[in-house]
Amino acid sequence: MKPSVNERFTVSPFLISILIHSMQLGVSYLSMAINPIQWAGQDTWISVLLCGLSIHVVIWMMYGILNRNETDLINTHLQIFGKWGGSGLNFIFIVFFLLGSIYQLRLFIEIVQVWVFPDIETWSLALILLLLVYYCVAGGFRTIVGISMVSLVQHLLIFSLVFAMPFFQFNNLLPMLDHSINSIFKAAKEMTFPYFGVEMLLFIYMFIKTPQKSQKWAHLGNMLTTMFYLIIILSLVLLFKPHQISTEIWPELSSYKFVRFPFIEHIEFIGAASLIFALFPVICLNLWASGRIMNIMVNVKRSTVLPMFLIIIFIAVCLIPDRNSIEEVKTILSKIGFYLIYIYIPFLYIVDMIRMKVRKVA
To answer: Rounded to an integer, what distance in angstroms lies between the CA atom of residue 74 and that of residue 71?
Structure first.
């Protein structure tokens, strides 16, 4: 008997586009352009499209696994690899989700400390934010979906770049196709990190009404992310030279300095503060998925394990002292995420496909 979820806890398929987009966005997109532009320069936009296309292939594979088994990845692991092997693989995803939450939260606090409130303590802001996260996650999956919808408000700031257009140097786009295929692919690999979050689809599948019909919406969510990143990359290329971007920590925030309003002197402060809308969906969904994994594996209530996860995140965030340490966490997270998305998911897709064919023959 396939595990099921009460319909009142499920959401409409079209909302998957918002969830996928919100999970991919996060806070880390602010610095996503630095390394790719060093590899591909003005041709980085090609790398963005290539990376977006590769994620579409990964989404197709994930739906192949999910639709064949008619359940989420947690139960699929247990079916394919048994109790111990499946639980071990599920635990890896818990570590990945918690590490992602730690990184996103610490990065947001670092941005607030640099741009808005230099004297604020890490622990105090982390405590306030995690209490809000607890309130949101305790509300359940549908509450988190609502938060993800509200998070789209931050996209309004992208329109402020219209006022930076007088500073655009369109010559920066020339010469086009000036970099080797190898450089473009290396830039695309560097661009994979901002696309992490798509793997959440493997854990929310059971909470979608008619999940088989939601695939087009998942692809739409990834397409929105790709278009958003494309706008960001192009605006940065038009505003900065590659060597200038390499000296920036968060180029996207620096680009707001070109925007001037008579009633707002520093719009970059608003840009930094608005990142809270990008932060909450990521941390809330990560904690929700981690709690669900624990609930299925060891039959412990999410309300019991959630405070434990929050304490772990709080302690870890407070132990990360500076930006160099944050970058070290990002490096670890990037390697784990790359192997999970581009190596493990295709591997699981092939294993599951063979398993299904053998079962039909038997």
So the answer is: 8
Q: Which two tokens stand for residue 315?
A: 């302690």
Rounded Cα distance, 325 and 323, in Å:
5
- Distance, in Å, from the CA atom of 195 to the CA atom of 197, rounded to the nearest integer, reads 6
Closest CA to 103 of 193, 164, 180: 193
- The three-point CA angle 199-182-249 to 5° equals 65
| pLDDT tens-digit series, residues 316-347 | 999 999 999 999 999 999 999 999 999 999 99
| Phi/psi of residue 11, nearest 5 degrees | -130, 165
pLDDT digit string, tens, across residues 200-226: 999 999 999 999 999 999 999 999 999
Nearest residue to 338 via CA among 350, 327, 330: 330
322 CB-side CA count, 13 A: 1
Q: How far is CA 336 from CA 80, 95, 100, 186, 343, in A?
A: 22, 10, 10, 18, 10
Q: Is 265 helix (H, G, I), strand (E, B) or coil?
A: coil
Entry pTM: 0.94
Closest CA to 22 of 288, 297, 298, 353: 288
pLDDT band at 28 (very low <50, low <70, confident <90, very high): confident
Is the separation of the CB atoms in 2 and 71 below 8 Å?
A: yes
